[in-house]
Amino acid sequence: MANYTEQELLSRIGEVRFACVELQLYLDTHPEDLDALSDFNSYAATLKRLCAEYTERFGPLENFGNSTHDAGSWVYQKWPWQN
């Protein structure tokens, strides 16, 4: 687990998510490219790890379905303008 700040972690998640989307689009037209598939799988695993780290440290990234926190618990966290 890297020692990212919240903003650094969000930025890294965005970068890795972008790479996943781009590789997925590429694989739609080049499904036989095993190097690209390997890269996609690697980025997807990294994205899953980063999202889990964010959720553990700062709360859920999404408002439903993928969080181990109680539903609605995000309401009790600091709002962006309260920082």
Question: What report would you give on this structure?
Answer:
- With 83 residues, the chain is an all-alpha fold.
- The chain has one domain (1-60).
- Helices cover 59% and strands 0% of the residues.
- The chain has two helices and no strands.
- The longest helix has 25 residues, at 34-58.
- The model has no long low-confidence stretch (mean pLDDT 86).
Please give the domain count: 1
Helix run count? 2
Output mean pLDDT.
86
Unreliable spans are none
Distance between the termini: 24 Å
Radius of gyration: 15 Å
Biggest pleated sheet: none
Query: How large is the share of residues in beta strands?
Result: under 5%
Structural class: mainly alpha
Percent range of helical residues:
55-70%
For the secondary structure, the number of strands is 0
Order of helices and strands: HH
Q: Which word captures the global form?
A: elongated
Topology summary:
Elements: H1 6-29, H2 34-58
In short:
With 83 residues, the protein is mainly α. The protein contains two helices and no strands.
Keywords for this entry:
mainly alpha, 0% strand
